[in-house]
Structures are given as C-alpha cells and as structure tokens.
From TrEMBL:
Name of the protein this chain belongs to: WD40 repeat-like protein
Sequence segments annotated as region (Disordered): 384-447
Highest taxon of the lineage: Eukaryota
This protein's UniProt keywords: Repeat, Transcription, Transcription regulation, WD repeat
Gene3D superfamilies linked: YVTN repeat-like/Quinoprotein amine dehydrogenase
Family stated for the protein in its record: Belongs to the WD repeat ESC family.
Compositional bias segments (type: Low complexity): 395-431
WD repeats: 118-153, 167-198
Length: 507
C-alpha cells in the first residue's frame, strides 16, 4: 500500500466558540486554499450562520489550528452555506461566500475588505465552485433553479454575469456544483433528482462584461435515473462522476456513455429535446416538464453505473463528501454521516484489486495521461464493463423540512480535544460470519454495482453526536477537515513526518 495509501487519523475536534460556548451554529462548508504549494501550512475557510472564519493548520502539541480572521456578516439573520477561494490580481487570497441571501460576497482575506458583491440570482445561493483553470471564474447554484457563471475579473465588475444556465436544466432548487479539471464542463445536482452536465464556453467570450451574458438552455447530459432524491453533492473523478442524494445512504461512481474530455464536445444541436408528451392510443397526452423523467445525452447512449460506496445514516440532505485527487498520490474519497462518523476509501486500492480480481475490468495497455489522473478515469470508453444502463431504483418524495433536522444528541462543548487512544479510529470490517471472499468483495473487490463497498477506514469523533456537513482536503493531502452541526470541527492528519514524494507514472 505504501505511504500514499495511509489513511488519516483524528487529531483533534473542537468548537471555535470554546468549551463554554452555547453557539449552535452549523458549519455548512469548509474549503482549503488551493493555491498554496504542498508542504506550506495550509489555510482553510469555514462558513455557517453569519460567520466565515479563516484558519491555518499547525502541527503543535496542544494546538492544531490558528484562527487568522473572522468575518461576521452585517445581516444578523444570514444563513451562510457555501465558501470558495479565489485570488486577486496582486495575489491576495479572496473568499467567496453565499447563503440565504441571493448575493455572493467576495472578501479580501489579507485586508479584510469587501471586494465586490455579485447580484443576479433571484433566491438563495446553495453552492459555489471555482474553476480549476482560473480563479477568475466562479459558478453558483440557486433556489431560483438556475446555475450562473461569473467573471471575477475587475474589468467585468459592472457586468460580472458571464453565463446563465437555465430553461431545460433544473425545474427545482439547484443544490450542488462540480467543475471538470479542464474547466469546460460543469456538473449540477438538485431537488428535482437531476444530474446535469453543462458545457461552459471558453471565458471570457464576446458576451462577458455585457448586459447580455451567454445563455445555455440545455445541458449536454441530463438524467433523473441515477438518483431518487435530492442530489446534494456532485464531483468529477477524472472523466467519471461521483454523486450522492439524500435518503439513499450511498455514494455512486458512474460514467456517461461515450464521454471523453480529450475530444471536443458535441454541438448543441445534438442535445436531445426533453420528452413533452406520451401517446395513449392515437391521442397525445401532454405532460408538464417536471413530470417527465429519463436520460438525455449529446454523446448518445445513457450512463453506466460502476461502484456504490456505503454511507450509512446519511439520510439528510446537505451532507457532502470530499475527494483528494492529486497527481502521484492515491485518490481518497471521504464522507461523513449523522452519527459523528467519517468513512475513507482508497480509490486506487479499489482499482488495483478490481483489475486483479475481475477480468471484466481489465483495460488494454495505454500510455500514461499527461496530467497523471488516476488510471480508473482514463480509457473509460474502451472499458468492457458490460453493465446495462440502469433505470431508477424507485421513487421517493422528499420533505424539505429535513434540511432543518439535526442530530438528536447535543454535543459536549470542548475547546480542543486531542484524539488519543483506540476508540476514535476503527477500521471497518464485515461481520465474522462472512466468508473471506465476501469480506474482500465488501472492502476491495469491484463487482456488482448495486453492492455497497464499505469504507477501508471508519473514524468516529468521540463524546459527541453531530451531522458532518462538509469535508475538505489540503492540497498536499496531509490534512482533512470535517465540519458540521453544533459548531463542530474535526481535524485529521497523516504523514506527520512530511508529505511523501509523488510516485511516478499514473497515480
């Protein structure tokens, strides 16, 4: 397995308000600053309520974080839920924050000043995503059923909206976003159970900075057949996709048929129109768009479901997973639940085990990708999986009030508790009654795509019960931070002797 396969251990858990704090703020989002070179003490931002807090990770005996700056929104009723990092022209770090107010605020971390405010959404903003290609491009998802892409370039300050994605995209609140590493593709998920893929033009284009931003009416891919409830987290894993929905207690890994980011996207004219009517005998019956289901893809075909990861007790929505995926290191998936537990999967370990155990997953020889993405993400169009396109597993009616639910047990307040002993870290394993083959299938084997793979490692934050809302990795992979209800922050570390050198070839 090697050093790169080492999974994190709980170092500390804390409430920023201190052990006597009565603050019940839910931290909904955490993001590490992505522009710090690996090895430098990483900085992260957390947001929730009316607060956004900037912290630095430090390896000290009695402390693991240093609070650098605290922003308090002037609106005391603010309910912030999303944070992203950007960078000013002079290199100053910027944080973008959003929540129940339709506005998105951009703050300068170095000076503490409000840089600008983005206005254009008609309702609350639920997620933000910065382009991995440039810190000048920001995407947002809203209760107004739209996805917007903004230019943060100061020359576009008067007209920052660059792209509007709406129309035949989402019919209900949009909850989640995820950029492809190329910046050309953007995933969105929402309360209509849809996962959409939008093709984003190269920005700035001729409309950027004008009062007529580029309009995208149709996503290149759209499906209501992957999930049965609110889709609240979507991420690209190379050209594959990871996503989850409330009430399903699992994370899915899947692929869009024929999608290959190395090829130019199909033209918009190839996007199938959504179904609008059905026939009963010779009489057409027209249906509202919200009642039609299915999968539409400009690449032809549908999608292939590949793996399913077990995430028990994660029925609420706004419980989001984290993904560490850097060249030369094992890609690690991490998720939390409503019972103070975190689950870690080494995706490279899964791929290597599957390549050995299941001949259906073996790939032909191919050259390494220039960007060193994990080999499971490359050559997907040539992968002879033989899996049929999957239909919906059923239907579920979601109750929006579940957003307000939280863990039933109130926490024991603590300033910072250093995690020691064996009680907080446990490696998941199936029951002893299972055969060795069944155990291996549950932890490392790749087989039935409807058979959940349990975590390689499970960690429980002791003495407290809280819902884990979001997780984030430092760029070097040595730190992982989880945040959630009751003001809780949990700090995980690995490689305390230093970040190991990247391995050569494909990670």
């Amino acid at each position: 397995m090697g050093l790169h396969g080492e999974l994190p251990s709980l170092r500390a858990y804390l409430r920023l308000g201190g052990k006597d704090s009565n603050d019940t703020t839910t931290w909904y989002d955490v993001k590490f600053y992505p522009y710090t070179p690996p090895g430098v003490d990483p900085v992260f931002a957390v947001t929730g309520g009316c607060n956004t807090i900037i912290c630095r990770c430090v390896l000290q005996k009695e402390s693991c974080i240093e609070v650098l700056r605290v922003y308090k929104d002037e609106d005391t009723d603010a309910a912030l839920n999303s944070v992203e990092w950007s960078q000013a022209e002079n290199g100053d770090p910027l944080v973008c924050v959003s929540g129940n107010n339709p506005q998105i605020k951009i703050l300068n971390v170095k000076t503490g000043e409000l840089v600008t405010t983005l206005t254009g959404h008609g309702d609350a903003v639920n997620d933000l995503a910065i382009s991995p290609v440039t810190p000048k491009i920001l995407a947002s998802a809203s209760n107004d059923n739209t996805v917007k892409v903004w230019s943060l370039d100061p020359i576009h300050r008067n007209q920052p909206t660059a792209v509007n994605c709406f129309g035949e995209g989402h019919k209900e609140t949009v909850l989640a976003l995820g950029f492809h590493r190329t910046g050309q593709y953007l995933l969105s998920g929402g309360m209509d159970t849809k996962v959409n893929l939008w093709v984003i033009p190269k920005l700035p284009d001729q409309n950027t900075g004008t009062d007529k931003p580029t309009l995208i009416h149709y996503p290149h891919f759209s499906s209501t057949e992957i999930h049965t409830d609110f889709v609240d987290c979507v991420r690209f894993y190379g050209d594959l996709i990871l996503s989850r929905a409330s009430k399903e207690n699992k994370i899915l890994l899947w692929a869009i048929d024929n999608f290959n980011s190395e090829n130019p996207p199909p033209p918009y004219s190839s996007v199938p129109m959504p179904p609008s009517r059905i026939s009963k005998g010779t009489t057409p019956i027209w249906l509202p768009s919200a009642q039609t289901t299915g999968t539409r893809s400009a690449w032809g075909g549908r999608f292939q479901r590949l793996l399913q990861f077990e995430e028990p007790y994660s029925t609420y929505f706004y419980i989001r997973f984290g993904l560490f995926h850097e060249p030369g290191k094992h890609p690690i998936l991490v998720a939390g639940n409503e019972k103070s537990r975190l689950f870690f999967w080494d995706l490279q370990r899964l791929e290597e085990a599957g390549a050995i155990e299941d001949s259906a997953f073996k790939r032909p020889e191919r050259k390494a990708k220039k960007d060193n993405v994990a080999s499971i993400t490359s050559g997907i169009s040539n992968l002879p999986l033989g899996l049929p396109s999957r239909m919906r597993e059923g239907s579920a009616v979601s109750n929006a009030s579940s957003a307000a639910q939280s863990s039933s047990s109130m926490p024991v307040s603590t300033t910072a508790s250093v995690a020691t002993g064996t009680g907080s870290n446990t490696t998941s394993a199936p029951s002893k009654s299972k055969t060795a083959k069944e155990k291996d299938d549950r932890t490392t084997g790749i087989g039935d795509s409807f058979h959940s793979i349990i975590a390689h490692k499970t960690v429980m934050v002791p003495k407290i019960t809280f819902t884990v809302r979001q997780l984030s990795w430092s760029r070097g992979g040595e730190w992982c931070v989880a945040v959630g209800d009751h003001g809780m922050i949990a700090i995980f570390t690995r490689w305390e002797e230093g970040i190991p050198e990247p391995t050569g070839g494909v990670s």
